[in-house]
Amino acid sequence: MKNFLALLKSQPAMLVGFVLLAALVAIAVFAPWLGTVDPTALSPVNRTKPPGAQFWFGTDLLGRDVYSRVVYGARVSLIVGFSVAVLSTLIGVVIGLAAGFVRWVDAVVMRIMDGFMSIPTILLAIALIAVASASMKNVIIAITVAEVPRVVRLVRGLVLTLREQPYVEAALAAGAGKLRIVARHIFPNTIAALTVQATYICGVAILAEASLSFIGAGVPPSVPSWGNIMAEGRALWQIRPYLIAFPAVFLSVTILAINMLGDGLRDAVDPRMAKRAD
Question: How many whole angstroms separate alpha carbon 37 and alpha carbon 253?
């Protein structure tokens, strides 16, 4: 914990990203206590009200409070982002370690991963959701399937480099088993790079969920998410721009915070990157 705080102090951009992300997480967790109302409650008499004292972010076509919908929408985006980052990293680590250390597994698995990576994330997610149905769980599964190959390739590349190191060769010569070598010498040296990759995946997943919801292939329209809010407001964006502006700002700030945090972690993992940026 002390090392992490010291890292934040040494990386101003990372500190800003961390503070912004922590604030967004707090907003999502404490949404019921932030002056919100039921984000699905309809009020036809209050349709398309502009932002004001009663409705801070205005109301939509069905009279729903946009502020409440945007705040609750943070829950959807962060749950999807964090879930995809964790799941794709865990699955990718297992497959990548096996592919990097067992040659026949490498030959089979990497051809499959190359096939998945040849398809854009959004298109692959749309295809997978079309087979199932639009729900948060299926969105998480679809984006995870699309992101796993990137983790696999990262881990495989690290394993191929690390297994040629003298300490790994010495462990093999001493009679250590492959599982022991992977657990004690290979995997610990992939954690730093995986942490950086996980932040990137989190941002991509949040943006992918918003894109899927915007085109009607994400979470159901009844669920308040930033993509759904923007999709419902696009018909009136010229006369009621706030219907798109507020969720778009929250989405942009979230992606920016995650990227700043990831950039700081990257510079901490590889100081040469920070010098190159300077």
Answer: 23
pLDDT tens-place string over residues 172-231: 677 666 677 777 778 888 888 888 889 999 999 999 999 888 888 888 888 888 988 898
**The one-letter amino acid at 265:** L
What domains does the chain contain, in order, with CATH numbers?
58-272 (1.10.3720.10)
> In angstroms, rounded to a whole number, what is the distance separating the alpha carbons of residues 69 and 189?
42
For 229, the token pair is: 């809010």
Alpha-carbon Rg for the chain in angstroms: 22
How would you label 237-252 residue by residue, b for 16+ Cβ within 10 Å and e otherwise? eeebebbbbbbbebbe
Q: Quick count: other Cβ atoms within 10 Å of Cβ 6?
A: 10
Instruction: Give the residue among 203, 193, 202 at the shortest CA–CA distance from 255.
Output: 203
Kindly tell me the burial class for residue 113, based on how many C-beta atoms sit within 10 Å of its own C-beta (0-12, 13-18, 19 or more).
Answer: buried
